[in-house]
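Worked problem 6 (solution included).
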Amino acid sequence: MSALTRISESGSFTQPNDDAATIKTDVSAPQDAEGDPHLVVLEPQDNPQNMSLFRRWLAVLIISSASLCVTCDSSIAAFTEQGAAQTFHVSHEVTILGISLYVIGLGIGPLLIGPLSELYGRNVVYQASYVFFFIFTFPVVFAPNIAVFLVFRLITGFCGSTFLSVAGGSVSDMFPDSSIASPMAVYTISPFIGPVAGPLIAGFINQHLYWEWTYRVQLCWIFVELLMLATFVPETYVPVILKKKAKRLRESTGDSKFYAPLDRREGSLASAIFVSCYTPFQLLLFDRMALLLDSWNAFILGILYLAFQAFPIIFGDIHGFNMQTTGLAFIGIGIGMLSAISTQPLWNRLYARETAKYNGDPPPEMRLIMGQVGAILVPVGLFWLAFTTYPQVHWIAPIIASVPFGSGIYFVFTSTFTYLVTAYRPIAASAMASNSAMRSAFAATFPLFAGAMYDRLGTVGATALLAGLATLMAPLPFIFYRIGARLRKSSRFAAH
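Solution. The predicted structure is:
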């Protein structure tokens, strides 16, 4: 099998890296490539999709756990705010920036790190980012003042963002389209389980130890993840595999003519980073469908991060929970997410039927069916949560109410992600980068006004307001399911 054939196969809808926002590595550039004896091609033993199923799943689980670790680090700060405020002699509002700045780093990183993975491969980027993630967590743990603490929260968020931009490509490298749904679902949910797991872990630690221990435990987790990434996760990006193979052939044969397509790449890294930063915002400015879907996703993630300030009010102030049990209150959202992912086989069968109906080429709008379910569950869960926050209502009621909210989050994001990378296939990475940037902006902002909003409106009014806004946005997947094909035809970015 030629390199050209395999690389084309790996550029499936789940790989958000094969677009104009990356360095050109078009293996078909030489017109007579197939007849060139010095062009290195991909042989079966080199193909990452031919690794054993156990090894591929092990890599997926490690990458997913690394992603979970990164996003968990964003929310553990919510339960260290009181201790940090006392240690650094600042207000509670200032310590909330520990979450906001970290999330901003998560949003900025994909714009710059994506092109690096196209040039140096997935593994180098994974390992380098986690090494820096590990090193720069030390100043957070031992910060002498609030300025150092906040600056390095931003930096660690940036370092960890690799797993929100590159990891999806690794999954699609290792699995063909016919079997990618389940491993991709496992990876997709990990960045959203992470913020929910953070309060559970941090609540327990802060109940019994000093707040700094939260980050010390996180530091140990990061180190373990780094060891697993270095030991068990192979390089899966085909152009880099071929480049390394060409280098080995040149060294073993002494013939310097052997080359891989990546050796003949066009453009510079600087130009690739420029395009990677420019194109996502161009998409938001000139494509209404992308803007609305990204705004919907951003609003829902903003609510999730706002919950890190709201749940201590609902369960701590109203129901008298301590820090540990307040962290456990987030378990409802986690159960909702896990319940949603358990339905993935049903969705796989639905998509298979739809694909057969369209002779193997279904429209991208098919992916929005899952989003329609999520669009209903999110406001239902929020309204239910709002009207069960009265003191006379048992504390289990709002926790149960958060279950459909958690399920809705999974359905909304999984649906939108797959829709964006299929509907905007020519610029798939930029479509995902624009979504990530807007989500991070909302997630960074919402915790900052959560306290004031709940003080002014109360738990019922504030939560019901969020539910009402979610209801206003709920028709979006239904509308785009019907008219998305027409909008794509008039878009200069979307696939027609």
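Discussion: The first helix runs from residue 3 to 10.
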